Amino acid sequence: MFDKKAARTVTLVKDPNGTSAVNLSKVREAGHIDLAKKADKAGISLNKRGLEGIRAQAFLVLDYSYSMLDDYRNGNVQTLVERALGFALQIDLDGEVPVIPFASQALPTIAVNLNNYQGVVDRELVQKHRMGSTDLAGGLQVVLDAAKTTDSPIFCIVVTDGAPDSKPAAVKVVAEMSKYPVFIKFLALNEIEFLRKLDDDMAGKSLIDNVDTKFSSGDLDLLGGTDLKFADAMTDEWDTWIKAAFTAGVLR
């Protein structure tokens, strides 16, 4: 039976002035204009939900399975890494996103920041590692391990295009993560029934609803849509998770 008790409690910090975690003026001055624009749109979306000034550690978990080959070749994954970093500049004080690739197992974490984000996917992942299967549970386990010692909430972004090798293992780790201060945002490049169930059918299996899945289909284009629509997709349900996390004792 699932143990419905928080395993870790952290303090939610929110800047009273609602400012971004990273000084966006300095980001612009350094020449990262497009990234700053992405962060600006993230700020608008956060403000819509009363989350402006909120602080959290952003993580990005990347599917590096064979089925994702074209998305790595054509720059789709690099685009999502940059969009995730732009969002992180609003919430993450160090402005750095640990990127956790997973194939047949979790691969070494890549720290992505303003100094190395350009071309980082090809340089640090494609050129160094072979693709494999889809060990989603292994990738998420890295985030769960970080959650066991974190002092701030974690915003975990997962990019994938298919169901995992082991669905029970993935369900188990997601359920365990619900007892920790981790909100999981799945960005799915295809319609994936497993992720729909993971989003909607975890009642009684998790402490709180800690998953929101966005599919790149219909009026939501995760790759080619506007930065504001992407940011709105990112912030969706984070506010409701925060309320539930306070009630469950995951946040204080």
Q: Classify the fold: give the CATH topology.
A: Rossmann fold
* Oligomeric description of these chains: single chain
CATH class: Alpha Beta
Q: Specify the CATH homologous superfamily.
A: von Willebrand factor, type A domain
Secondary-structure arrangement, i.e. CATH architecture: 3-Layer(aba) Sandwich
Name the shape in a single word: globular
The domain count comes to 1
Low-confidence stretches: none
The ordered H/E elements are HHEHHEEHHEHEHEHH
N- to C-terminal distance: 26 Å
Find the structural class using helix and strand composition.
alpha/beta
For the CA atoms, what is the radius of gyration? Answer: 17 Å
Quote the average pLDDT. Answer: 96
How many helices? The count is: 10
Beta-strand residue percentage = 5-15%
For the biggest β-sheet, the strand order reads 3-2-1-4-5-6
Give the helix proportion (percent range): 40-55%
Largest sheet: 6 strands, mixed
Describe the 3D structure.
With 252 residues, the chain is an alpha/beta fold. It has one domain: Rossmann fold (3-Layer(aba) Sandwich). The protein contains ten helices and six strands. A six-stranded mixed β-sheet has the order 3-2-1-4-5-6, sandwiched between helices. Strand 5, helix 8 and strand 6 form a beta-alpha-beta unit. Helix 2 crosses helix 4 and helix 2 packs across helix 9. The two termini are 26 Å apart. The model has no long low-confidence stretch (mean pLDDT 96).
